[in-house]
Design a protein that fits this description.
The protein is built from three helices and eight strands; from the N terminus they run ββαββββββαα. The protein has helices at about 35-45, 125-145, 160-175, and strands spanning about 15-20, 25-30, 55, 65-70, 75-85, 90-95, 100-110, 110-120. Helices cover about 20% and strands about 30% of the residues. The chain has an eight-stranded antiparallel β-sheet, covered by helices on one side. The protein has a single domain (about 10-175), classed as Alpha-D-Glucose-1,6-Bisphosphate, Chain A, domain 4 (2-Layer Sandwich), CATH 3.30.530.20. By secondary structure, it is α+β, with helices and mostly antiparallel strands.
């Protein structure tokens, strides 16, 4: 597949957990690859920029300080981050700007159930984050299958269905009082 042929996959299950000062996106994705392969995609400094909006200064396989260089915009940004928890092939947690990312992997009959928990202070970041991670994980899954098409990040993502996904996840994860059926209406992708 070439990048111009990419279309987002069907939306994945997601919900939001709220606490007093933060909101956490809980995004669950079924991947066909085994946990060891998914772990490598999540932690290897060479693989991450092929599907994610950043490049870490080192592999994310040990706790401690790490610089995360954003590659999704025209202005370079570097976050001084910290890998907080590492359980190989099971849990990876690190700070990313003002967010906390926690990746949980569980072996399944068909590969891996990947649960991403992104904790943010501003709940308005949740729907666009869900849309972004959706597309990133589509690309990661292709990469793990040996089909590297490069990341679809930043402004470029709007040409590949990001806006439609953000709208869908906004209805799914936002205030549903205006439309009780919003979560049932998947976008036509």
């Amino acid at each position: 597949m070439q990048i111009e042929d990419y279309k987002p996959t069907a939306p994945a299950p997601a919900h939001v957990e709220h606490s007093e000062n933060t909101s956490t996106l809980v995004y669950v994705r079924k991947l066909r690859q085994p946990p060891e392969r998914v772990w490598a995609a999540l932690t290897d400094a060479e693989q991450l920029p092929k599907w994610a909006p950043y490049r870490p200064s080192r592999n994310l396989t040990e706790t401690g300080a790490v610089s995360i260089n954003m590659i999704d915009g025209s202005t370079p940004e570097v976050y001084e981050s910290e890998v907080k928890e590492v359980i190989p092939n099971e849990v990876l947690e690190y700070s990313w700007g003002e967010s906390l990312l926690r990746w949980e992997l569980a072996a399944s009959e068909s590969g891996t159930t990947l649960t991403l928990r992104q904790t943010v202070e501003n709940p308005e970041w949740i729907p666009p984050s869900a849309a972004g991670w959706h597309m990133c994980l589509d690309i990661a899954e292709m990469l793990m299958d040996g089909n590297e098409i490069g990341p679809i990040i930043g402004e470029v993502a709007t040409s590949y269905g990001w806006s439609m996904l953000a709208e869908y996840y906004g209805k799914l994860l936002g205030d549903k009082s205006d439309d009780d059926n919003a979560a049932e209406d998947s976008p036509e992708l």
